[in-house]
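User: Show me sequence and structure for the first protein, then do the same for the second.

Assistant: Starting with the first protein.
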Amino acid sequence: MNSKVEQFLTAKEEKNIIDAIRTAEELTSGELRVHIESNSTGNIDARTIDVFETLQMHQTAERNGVLIYIAVIDKAFAIYGDDGINRKVDLNFWNSTKDIMQNHFKAGQFAEGLIQGILKAGQELSRFFPRLDSDVNELSNTISKG
């Protein structure tokens, strides 16, 4: 694995991000994941979809998985929501989440950008996919790396 990926976040920052995922998922039945790799090797949107499928994030009951993809060397990120989300929201749905993250990233606050983006995503998703008493955690909350 690339050392840039390993050095991107400290162990404490990774724990805080995982805690943010848990907090966000307390508001919504949506499932959030973060994937970090050195670069997107081409089109970042296509790579994000590839990772989404590799992580089998399309296998949620409501098709409401969300992947936040980070390409460290490229200094780029993308947010991809599954079909269940895209059928319910407008094209600009992720803009407020992206803006929050980008503002933190520009200041070099990568962990805080991810945390605030995850919390915002959970809040936004809760309007369309509220958490139910019967909700189960369908996807791992761990940060995947490539």
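Switching to the second protein now.
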Amino acid sequence: MIEIDAALIERALANLVENALRYTPAGGSIALSAAAADAGISINVNDTGCGIANADMERVFERFFQSTHSREGNGHAGLGLAIVKRVAALHNGHVAVRNRSGNGACFTLWLPLTPSDSL
């Protein structure tokens, strides 16, 4: 069991999927998966987009940061991934990103199991 604020988790997942859609070209793919992992649940959003520049990797979860791939006036404020990070923290979890071999990125939202004595 995990205890979550469903609306916040829904917002975080929507932000991750919207981000994947923004950077995945026509004909590409986006895959979501979830599995038990390290005393919690791991939710992955994989895409076949352009990936994340190495120089941007450490900053993608900062408020108002926009990667070098997105600086083309697309009208986004750079808040989506910062919101995901905050939602994860509010649930005592975390979010991480890595580039996939070949192309694309994988964002992982990890949420801890709820101790049975707190249910």
